[in-house]
Amino acid sequence: MPEKIKIVHVLEGFAGGAATYIDNTLIRLKDRGFDVTFICSLDRTEDGSEERIEKLRRLGVKVHIVDMRREIKIIADVQAFIAILKIFRKNRFDIVHSHCSKAGALSRVAALIAGIKVRIHSPHCFAFIRCGGALSKRVYLALEKILAAITTKLVLVGKGQKEIAEKYKIASAQKCEVVQNGLDTKTVELSDAEKAAYKKQLGIGSNCRVVATVCRLTGYKGVGKFIEAAELSKIKDVVFVIAGQGQLRRQIEKTITEKNLSKKVLLLGQLRDMDRLYGICDAVVLCSQAEGQSYVILEAMRSSCAIVASSVIGNIELLDEARGVLVENKVEHIAAGIDSILSDKEKQQQMRDRAYEYFLKNHNVERQIDKLSRIYKSAVRKIKL
């Protein structure tokens, strides 16, 4: 066994839940004695991403920027592949751990060619589950199966993702390992004065309740359904807020204007301090058509927020009727779920308390790091025997 196991994590776009995963794990892995490198692209980022990447560098993670594109672009993909292969050959890593579809494809093939024997992949949420057309689904599924053949281990964020891998014959149960997402358990509690001040800053009346959705503004996250649910909601004095950025921003702004909802629905963009938003929320809503394991739900649980979420695989794993409201992913059901949770304060408080207890018991980030560390050490030990 080497004195320090050299691991390189590869991610195409530093945004969304995958970026949160990187933030939460890489420094902690370094502190556990691993030599950690990170390869990513700046093509698809959020506000503050470059500062977060610089923080990784300051704390001792070696970072390489490679121009990767989410879409299939033959010339750009070949250039990215060559750049990744050069980094692999120069640094002689023990483990490659790739994340999401594009980085997973490029880096697993590059690792095979470079002779890196431990190739770990985390899809987070399989692309063929969340993409639109039938042809795209078949192509992505076929690629997953081909790439799984050169993968040492699939590290999946939830049992549902493992079930999908087995159901669609992507990989055997032995090749799959579930490591649930985790967060630091520290919470920020706002005083009544701080809540009032923050509401005022956002242009929300002090007597208004707040329902929020937090996500990238992309199709499968269902922001349009959230806006329609806001329109259908029958509860008075509620402001619906959308926190996030993405390619659908202009379309969402247009929808809000056309529906004359500018006073009822606020598009806040990307927020740096999410704790303050969670601190004023009466409910957090997730309308996704697919999830691996949502950091938004975990953050809401940590902040003791009531939660309404679409009943898709990743959300079902985290929530039940005691910890939140799971609804069919249709506008009328989402609106009814929101209204039901806002109409019953006692039930709302019970859900908040139980969700927080569940989070503390199951999603401490140190448990996540423990499991990842064991997987890495075991994989390297096997190839050294």
Structure explained in plain terms:
This protein has 385 residues and is α/β, with parallel strands linked by helices. It folds into two domains: 6-182 and 364-384, 3-Layer(aba) Sandwich (Rossmann fold), CATH 3.40.50; 192-362, Rossmann fold (3-Layer(aba) Sandwich). It has 16 helices and 13 strands. Strands 3-2-1-4-5-6-7 form a seven-stranded parallel β-sheet, with helices on both faces. Strands 10-9-8-11-12-13 form a six-stranded parallel β-sheet, sandwiched between helices. Strand 1, helix 1 and strand 2 (35-41) form a beta-alpha-beta unit.
In short:
The protein is an alpha/beta fold and 385 residues long. It has helices at 16-31, 49-58, 74-91, 101-114, 127-130, 134-148, 159-167, 192-202, 223-232, 249-258, 274-280, 295-302, 313-318, 331-343, 345-362, 365-384, and strands at residues 6-13, 35-41, 62-65, 95-99, 118-122, 153-156, 176-178, 209-214, 238-243, 265-269, 283-286, 307-310, 325-327.
Write down the CATH topology of the largest domain. Rossmann fold
Average per-residue pLDDT, rounded, comes to 95
> Helical segment tally?
16
Q: Into which percent range does the helicity of residues fall?
A: 40-55%
The description of the largest β-sheet is:
7 strands, parallel
Which structural category fits the helices and strands? Answer: alpha/beta
Topology order in helix (H) and strand (E) letters: EHEHEHEHEHHEHEHEHEHEHEHEHEHHH
Distance separating the two termini: 9 Å
Overall strand count? 13
Rounded to an integer, what's the Rg over CA atoms?
A: 21 Å
